[in-house]
């Protein structure tokens, strides 16, 4: 059975700043994809590294005129081995800790942060 979620997009207002935030906090690679822009909408797109055949969701950072960032949209959780270690990099990367590490029983631990664009995202780990 495939995961119910197989793609996500995180909207940005400052594309370069958002790319720096995600690479600094999660120590991941983002690859710019060329997109065709028309007179109606300008878009920038960078995909998070991953294996297309793996069972996990893949996704991208997106700058799109018609989709502004912000809290209240879709909430996604990034997997992390150590939430406290990841949280320690958030503020220096331009983000904010919204809710510190919280125990959710047999499902592990979660935390909420605000990225450099004002999006709320989650962190989740088993330890």
UniProtKB/TrEMBL annotation:
<dbReference type="InterPro" id="IPR004360">
    <property type="entry name" value="Glyas_Fos-R_dOase_dom"/>
</dbReference>
<dbReference type="InterPro" id="IPR037523">
    <property type="entry name" value="VOC_core"/>
</dbReference>
<protein>
    <recommendedName>
        <fullName>VOC domain-containing protein</fullName>
    </recommendedName>
</protein>
<dbReference type="InterPro" id="IPR029068">
    <property type="entry name" value="Glyas_Bleomycin-R_OHBP_Dase"/>
</dbReference>
<dbReference type="Pfam" id="PF00903">
    <property type="entry name" value="Glyoxalase"/>
</dbReference>
<dbReference type="InterPro" id="IPR052164">
    <property type="entry name" value="Anthracycline_SecMetBiosynth"/>
</dbReference>
<feature type="domain" description="VOC">
    <location>
        <begin position="4"/>
        <end position="126"/>
    </location>
</feature>
């Amino acid at each position: 059975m495939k995961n119910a979620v197989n793609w996500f997009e995180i909207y940005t207002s400052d594309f370069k700043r958002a790319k720096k935030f995600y690479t600094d906090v999660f120590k991941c690679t983002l690859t710019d994809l060329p997109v065709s822009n028309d007179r109606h909408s300008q878009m920038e797109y960078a995909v998070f590294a991953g294996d297309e055949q793996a069972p996990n969701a893949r996704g991208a950072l997106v700058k799109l005129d018609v989709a502004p960032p912000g809290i209240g949209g879709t909430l996604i959780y990034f997997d992390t081995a150590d939430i406290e270690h990841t949280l320690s990099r958030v503020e220096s990367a331009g983000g904010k800790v919204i809710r510190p590490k919280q125990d959710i029983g047999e499902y592990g631990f979660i935390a909420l942060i605000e990225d450099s664009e004002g999006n709320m995202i989650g962190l989740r780990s088993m330890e």
